[in-house]
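re the bet — no i am not wrong, look at it urself. input seq straight from the record:
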Amino acid sequence: MKKSAQFRLFVVHLAIADCFYAVVSPIHLIYLLVTNNKWTVGKELCKILSVSGPLTVNVSAWILCLMGYERYRAICHPFARRFSKKMIHVSVGLIWIACIGLKMLTFIRANVTNDECYLHFDGLAEQTISAGVSLLAESILPIIVLSYYLVRVTITMKKRSKLFQTNDDNSICLRKDSRNNSSNSLITHENHSVINDNKISNSKKNNSSNFLQVASSTNNNLLKNDVNCFSEIEMNDLNTKAPLKISKKKNTLMLWNFIRRKNPVIKLVITSSVTKRISSNKADREIIIVFFLAVLMFVITTFPFTLNYFIACYLLSYSFSVEQVLKYGPTMEKTSDWLAFLVLSGCVSNVIIYSGKFPDFRYQIYKWANNILVKICSKVDFRKINNEVLESSL
């Protein structure tokens, strides 16, 4: 799991945003239910709580986009420079600043009137535009970006699975490379080791047994005499006395058909080569599965809420008459409240997904909280020591 350290940092930031929404939103809803929608705790809390819910949802959406970009770079561009811890923290901080800027209009328009906390826009057009911007920034754009990254990652992994065939039982798979123009070129595949452009040559050893030397070459040139990595295939064929001659593509295919038909004792000794591990391994696939589950929960839980809010604002502003507003307005408000619970369930499910798949992210949160508490306690102790020194000096 060392390869997913950057991904775990994004998971921690995303969990912080989800936990903030999971704590603040129920308090807001429970307070409104207990007081029968009466707001008696001040104008400032009305503004803060009206913004905090949509703000954390927007932040979570764009942190998911950053996670998708990190996985896209790790799998589609494995040799590109990875995110550092500082870059991750700065990127998440910029997301918070940008999302706060998008919610400034909501913060300004939130006000308390007749003991009720509502958003008071200057006109119907402003309310509809605000709902449209929320739908675009919180749902549509993140879904488009995430879908693009997931599709690119999936395509890349499928291409690599076709090029690099590995078996779970640590067996070796030989297949013909159709892209190579050489007629005597084969590829040997083994778990976590790839041997490219294997040249097959026929030789005799001590005039008693036939050997096929499968040598690996790091380029597409012809084999040299000083090849270091090689493997021997010992063929025990009682009916064959003359050495096999491999010169053309047809003869090569006949050779391997002959090997398969006679079922000889094949012994491969392949030395491990020092190559960079490709990113499409089991750990990366597990990370992508977790990321896909988080994105799926985001689409299921967040998109209906923002879409319903935009449709309700548009209908109440332009399509409905006064009678229809009085008739359907309470129903739309209740629907919005239930969809808010759906968003809350999505945040809780994300935390559960992260806890199950990445148990060490909790250790990361504990570590951060412990560092913050240590700094606060050290400052308090330092102030106490200074006060004691001043009192003793006096």
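see?? The CA atoms of residues 215 and 227 lie 7 Å apart. told u. also The mean pLDDT is 69. so pay up
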